[in-house]
Amino acid sequence: MDLIKPSLILSLLLAWCWTTPVFAADTAAGEQKAATCSGCHGPQGKSSNAQWPNLAAQQSIYLINQLKAFKSGSRKNPLMQPLAASLSEEDINNLAAYFSSQQAAKAGGDPTLAKSGQSKASICLGCHGPSAEGNGQFPRLAGQHPDYLLQQLKNFKQGSREGGPMQAIAASLSEEDMKELAAYFGSL
Fold first, then answer.
1. Which residue of 3, 98, 155, 170 lies most exposed, with the fewest beta carbons within 10 A?
2. 145 annotated ligand-binding residue
3. Is the pLDDT of residue 9 over 50?
4. CB atoms within 10 A of CB 90
5. pLDDT of residue 24
6. Could you tell me how far CA 108 lies from the centroid of its own chain?
7. Quick one: 68 exposed, middle or buried, by C-beta within 10 A (0-12, 13-18, 19+)?
8. Candidates 1.10.760.10, 1.10.10.10, 1.10.10.60, 3.30.70.240; CATH matching 24-104
9. Do domains 24-104 and 106-188 have the same CATH topology?
10. Is 17 assigned to a binding site?
């Protein structure tokens, strides 16, 4: 009976170790590296310019995927591509850990448009999470600048930005639908 207890304890300990996630990313290193990002994306990833997205509280997997896409050139942006090209895998992971750990931003949005957008938001929430907080590889929309979201929807619709189902979804939206959705998500 005494032999069972240590083996049971060892088994439980090993099971716990195998199921406990490993967090290799270093948020402090990410914070240092993020100084380069703050010029556009703002301190702690809270952009004051609607041309640049908020990175605060963004999904880390999404950030990693986007930085890798900029680095490889599969996502085009004349500013981001050279910046991402200089990042190591560790830098990318650290930046994602840092920005995802920041308090979410709230950009606001036209209240009238936001109210109309709320009734249309269900088309987005299946992938982007029930509160638009993001869902793994799908980005956080809540608190994002409405003008930024509107531009991204237009880019998907025009095909200048690719992203699986987003092109088809954006193609089904009118200009007014896009403005209303952008205002709603910005207001969250």
1. 3
2. no
3. no
4. 14
5. 67
6. 18
7. middle
8. 1.10.760.10
9. yes
10. no
Q: Which two tokens stand for residue 68?
A: 């890798």
Percent of the chain with pLDDT over 90: 81
Is 124 one of the annotated binding-site residues? yes
Domain ranges of the chain: 24-104, 106-188
Domain 106-188 has CATH 1.10.1200.10: no
Q: Which amino acid is at 15?
A: A
Largest CA distance in the chain: 72
- Whether the CB-CB separation of 156 and 170 falls below 8 Å is answered with yes
In DSSP notation, 165-176 reads HHHHHHHT--HH
DSSP state of 138: B
Yes or no: say if 142 and 133 are a contact pair by the CB < 8 Å rule: yes
Give me the residue label for tokens 């809540």: 142
Rg of the chain over Cα atoms, rounded to whole angstroms, equals 20
DSSP state of 110: -
How does residue 68 score in pLDDT terms, banded at 50, 70 and 90?
Answer: very high
Tell me how far apart the alpha carbons of residues 107 and 49 are, in angstroms, rounded to a whole number.
10
* 171 within 8 A of 161, measured Cβ to Cβ: no
Q: How many CB atoms lie within 10 A of CB 139?
A: 26
- What is the DSSP secondary structure assignment for residue 91, as one 8-state letter? H
